[in-house]
Write a structure and sequence with these properties.
Length: 304
């Protein structure tokens, strides 16, 4: 079980925006820079060795941490803060939705800090084009958190949990990559895309996040590899301009439909991925996936 907070910031830019690479890195780095400027109490000190990192907004939301899992393994947990730009209007619109997810109980306590940092970032602007913006509104669970341009509320915690039922359900669902999904194994051809490999990637991410920020109750279950039918395959590999570090930003975009028999356990994994993203560089918004569940009456009478 993992507790989390989710909110969508409505940003209005002073002029039409046009990003030539996925803008997640600009927002995440910019928010982090403003958090350090506003809240750091130990100036000019290495953040990783700082004694205040455990109760510092930047330290908790941005730094990775090494944890020991319940089976004694040491792993590096990703930061519990995901930033995903959505509905980008390239050269036409000046409105953008910026979705943020705080993973775990402790990170959710820093929502107002992020709100303040984003406001300051809007004044200075982002990217080389120095796009300035203001926060018009913030939404969470279909309700506005602002009134008269001021923040008056906070997102409430929600919970993702695993369903361990093995009941098989017959039907189909649509997988839609709204931001590039970077495969950990480096796959670049749509013909080589493997459904069950994606399930394994989801399970690995769910295990790490639960061990680091959840109640450590998630257990990987065997997924019976029954025949799966792909249809409506409309995915392609996307590769944008290089980042500031000289790396290529690339991944799968598009959608496909999967038809077959699925367990409730698999369905809970699909619900997980719509919240926490999957693949590489998820904290910058890569791997944002929507799952449109549209299943028939189940084999055991169940339905999605």
């Amino acid at each position: 079980m993992i507790r989390y907070k989710e909110a969508s910031f409505v940003l209005e830019f002073e002029r039409p925006i046009a990003f030539f690479s996925f803008p997640g890195q600009f927002f995440r780095k910019g928010i982090g820079r403003k958090l350090k400027e506003i809240y750091c109490t130990a100036k000019n000190k290495d953040c990783k060795s700082c004694e205040h990192r455990a109760d510092c907004p930047f330290g908790l939301l941005y730094l990775t941490q090494e944890i020991t899992t319940s089976d004694g393994k040491k792993i590096t947990a990703p930061p519990p803060f995901i930033v995903t730009p959505e509905a980008v209007g390239e050269g036409v619109d000046s409105i953008m939705m910026l979705r943020v997810v705080f993973v775990g109980q402790q990170s959710g306590d820093y929502f107002r800090n992020v709100y303040n940092a984003l406001g300051e970032l809007g004044k200075s602007g982002i990217s080389k084009n120095n796009y300035q913006f203001k926060v018009l509104d913030v939404f969470s669970q279909d309700r506005s958190l602002c009134s008269m341009g001021k923040l008056v509320g906070e997102p409430e915690f929600d919970i993702w949990d695993m369903n361990v039922s093995y009941k098989k359900i017959e039907g189909s669902f649509l997988v839609f990559f709204s931001t590039p999904y970077i495969c950990p194994n480096g796959t670049r051809s749509a013909m080589d895309f493997n459904y069950y490999e994606m399930v394994e990637v989801i399970e690995k991410r769910a295990t790490i996040l639960d061990q680091a920020y959840g109640d450590k109750s998630f257990v990987v279950h065997e997924v019976e590899q029954t025949p799966i039918q792909f249809s409506d395959l409309e995915i392609e590999y996307y590769e944008a301009d290089t980042t500031d570090e000289g790396e290529f930003e690339g991944g799968f975009c598009g959608s496909f439909r999967v038809t077959g028999h699925f367990s409730d356990y698999e369905v809970s994994l699909y619900e997980f991925v719509t919240i926490f993203n999957i693949g590489k560089r998820t904290s910058e918004g890569f791997g944002r996936i929507y799952i449109d569940l549209d299943c028939d009456e189940g084999v055991d009478g169940g339905e999605f």
